[in-house]
Amino acid sequence: MVPTKEQLSKYAHLTIKMGVNVQKGQALLINAPIEARQFVHHLVEEAYEAGSEDVQVNWIDEVLTKKRYDHEPLSVLEHVPNWVVERQMTHAKNGGAVLNIHAPNPDLLEDVDAERVAKASKARSEALKDFKKYIINDKIQWSIVSVPTEAWAKKIFDTDDADKAVEDLWKRIFQIIRVDQDDPIQAWKDHNETLFHIRDYLNDKQYDALEYSSEYVDLTVKLPENHVWAGGGAVAETGASFNPNMPTEEVFTAPDFRGVNGTVQNTKPLNYNGNLIDDFKLTFKDGEVVEFEAGKGEETLKHLLDSDEGSKYLGEIALVPHSSPISQSELVFFNTLYDENASCHLALGSAYPTNVEGGEKLEDEELKEKGINTSLIHEDFMVGSADLNVYGVTKDGDQEPIIKDGEWAIKGA
């Protein structure tokens, strides 16, 4: 199936109205691969119809990205021009919204020296750290969606038939993102209400810790005082609601980064900067990764963990039922936006300051005092499975089920 204009328009309408929710007179920056050209045309039209002004598109060409890594000296890869930073910062300071079309080729940089990729990525993260604060603190609306590209679709379905793979991936995306329903916007409102119910339940409980157990996980995670669970839609500083991730099936919070102990093994591959990391195991002691190993991408994992002081600690814990629509597809998407919503997951690196009461007003050192991790990176990896149990530990030491055999144990979830 090649998506019709009506289907693309319907997806674009959902993205603009429920995803980034651009407001009248608000600027919009769209970051997109060149293969998403048709979809972006619909997005821009929808943005203008919503009253947006100053709609800009930043095109990404993975072929040129690969050539850059192959040929540029490291000194150039590590240099982020001032105009790149200024463009992002000016847009954010003026209250502009940001929409990312995320559809990476999982194998794009597999034959590039992992150190070159790591150093270039770190340089960009350092240069844009102030811009990142606008995102992680929900100062502006932002959202991420995906569309099929040939390389990505062929990887998912393990085929050389690009046309069939892209057709199949469009079908999957329209189902998962609820575009195939009569009223996708109402379907998303209903879905958000379910996530809000779980979020509110966990916020009322204020558990002292979580206990994870399965074939892959044996982990205790301390929770900070006054932690805040989030999930579904969010609200920007302006009061505008938005959905940061489409799809989303998670509720999440920040751990006390100093209080994580035990071992975890991944249950889905991690696509990190165009390289796959798989069959890996992490051992935590007092929050820090003290041992690691990987069957694939171990050197890339090492560079990830060495990114900065906070990259060996957790910044997010997220709960997702094993029966989520993404999980039911029985596909590995090699795309964190999708795979993280098929599985309970953890994130190495920075926490969202909004996951602790008043955190959006705190500086990094103040956040760390409360147990909220700070880092240049934020990388989700999947640990969920059909046999996963997650218990909330009360301040009195009692255990209460939250996830039982991979599914919600919360009434009404």
UniProtKB/TrEMBL annotation:
GO molecular function: aminopeptidase activity
Cofactor list: Co(2+); Zn(2+); Mg(2+)
Keywords of this entry: Aminopeptidase, Hydrolase, Metal-binding, Metalloprotease, Protease
Pfam families reported in the protein's UniProt record: Peptidase_M29
EC code(s) of this entry: 3.4.11.-
Matching InterPro entries: M29_Exopeptidase (IPR052170), M29_N-terminal (IPR035097), Peptidase_M29 (IPR000787)
Similarity remark: Belongs to the peptidase M29 family.
Name under which the protein is recorded: Aminopeptidase
Originating organism: Alkalibacillus filiformis
